[in-house]
Amino acid sequence: QLQLVESGGGLVQPGGSLRLSCTTSGIIFSIYNMGWYRQAPGKQRDLVASITSGGRINYADSVNGRFTISRDNAKNTVYLQMNSLKPEDTAVYYCNARRDVINDYWGQGTQVTVSS
Mind giving me the DSSP string for the chain? Predict the structure, then answer.
């Protein structure tokens, strides 16, 4: 059964850190490009960070230098380490696994709230 399960979200104060995890099942994880997206209320879903099957990494300008994406193919898991969090990082964060336009899957999302 195909699943992408995110975890690690929560409430954190500005300047704090969180680590999101996305564990997958039902796909050959190592051949998928993985990404983290976020969607704030009333806004579109935007790419935060991505890592290809070959390990090439891309970040949105707004998080570059603060967030780190990584993957562990042995654990079928992708991570997002988020440091120096800001209130504007508040959103639902979604994990995405994409092989091509057909094999494109999403997790259920995890809420990240940055507030004092």
Answer: --EEEEE--EEE-TT--EEEEEEEESS-GGGSEEEEEEE-TTS--EEEEEE-TT--EEE-TTTBTTEEEEEETTTTEEEEEE-S--GGG-EEEEEEEESSSSSEEE---EEEEE--
